[in-house]
Amino acid sequence: MTSLKISEVIEGLELKLLAGKDGINKEVSVVALAKPGLELAGMLDFYENDRIQIIGSKEAAYFHSLSKEDQLSRVDSMMKKKAPAIIFTKNVDVPKLFIELGNKYDIPILKSFYMTTSLFSELYDFLQAGLAERTSMHGVLMDINGVGVLITGKSGIGKSEVALELIRRGYILVADDTVEIYQVEKGVLIGEAPDVLKKFLEIRGVGVVNVVYLFGVRSYREKKRISIIVELDKWSDEAKTDRLGLKTGRRKIFDTYVSYASLPITEARNTATLVEAAALDFKSKDMGYNSAEEFNDLLNKHIIKNQELENEKND
Question: Residue 57 is part of which domain span?
Answer without folding.
Answer: 4-131
